[in-house]
Amino acid sequence: GVPLVDVDGMGRGLSWVDQTTYDVAGVSICPLVLTSTHGHTFIIEDTSGGEVERYVRSLTVQMGGWCAFAGYPLTRQDCLDVAIRGSLRRCLDVGRASLRHAGGSVDGPMPWDHLAHGRVVDVRWTYPSGYPRGTITVLTGDGDRRPIRIEASNEFLMVVDEGRSVAQAPTIISLVNRSTGAPVLAERIVVGIEVDIVSLRAPHRWQEPLFADRADVARFGLGPRS
C-alpha cells in the first residue's frame, strides 16, 4: 500500500555505486546512510560518488561483510530529468516471460535475444586492483561446436564469438541454467553446467551521449575510452 516511484539510476547490475545516471548528472549521493545487520550505522554527509565507493567497500568489510545503504536523495525533477524509468516493471515483465518460457509457452515475443547455448568448459578469475575479473568459456552445443568467451566482473560484461563482440555492457547479459531456467550469478558459474547465453537491450538512458561512457566496457578496462 506504499506509493512507489519506479525509477532508479542503473537499470541493470553495475559494479560501483557511482555508476549511476544520478552521479553523471551531478546529483549528490550524500547524505548517505550505511547500516549493518547489527544496528551499526554510518552517515556520510558530503563527498563524491567515487569517494563513497571507496569508503563503502572498506566499511562493509569492517561491518561484517554485508550492509545496506540509502543515498542519492532525489527531487521530482531529478526523476524526470536523469533517472531510468520503469526498471521494476521491466524486471516483472522479464520474470513473467521467463516463467512462460520455462513452462513451454512460446506465445508472444521474448524480451531477450538468444545468443547461444552450450556447456561451461573453463572459468578463470583474477583480482587486479582488488576487483574480480573473470573469463568464462562456453563450448556451444550447436553443430559447429565453437568456443564463446564471456568476460565478467561482478556482472557479465562482454560476449565474444569467434573474435567478435556480439554483446557488451551496457547491454544486459545473462547466463541461464538450462536445467532450472534460473539466471546464474557470475561468481557462481562453474565448469560443467549447461547454459543459455541471452542479452537484453540496455536502458535507453545509457545510450545517450551524456551517460554512455559511465557503463560501457571501457569503464572496466575492456576497450578504449571514448
How would you explain this protein's 3D organization?
The N and C termini lie far apart (45 Å). A hairpin with a 3-residue loop joins β8 (147-152) and β9 (156-161). This protein has four helices and twelve strands, in the order βαββαβαβαβββββββ. With 226 residues, the chain is an alpha+beta fold. The radius of gyration is 19 Å and the shape is globular. Strands 10-9-8-7-6-12-11 form a seven-stranded antiparallel beta sheet, with no helix packed on it. Strands 3-2-4 form a three-stranded antiparallel beta sheet, with no helix packed on it. A two-stranded antiparallel sheet has the order 1-5.
Give me a quick take on this structure:
The chain has 226 residues and is an alpha+beta fold.
Kindly state the mean pLDDT as a whole number? 89
Strand content: 25-35%
> What is the helix tally?
4
SSE-based structural type: alpha+beta
Q: Largest beta sheet, briefly?
A: 7 strands, antiparallel
For the largest beta sheet, what order do the strands appear in spatially? 10-9-8-7-6-12-11
> What is the radius of gyration computed over CA atoms, rounded to a whole number of angstroms?
19 Å
Number of strands: 12
Low-confidence stretches: none
User: Based on CA inertia axes, which overall geometry fits?
Assistant: globular
Which percent bin holds the helix content?
Answer: 10-25%
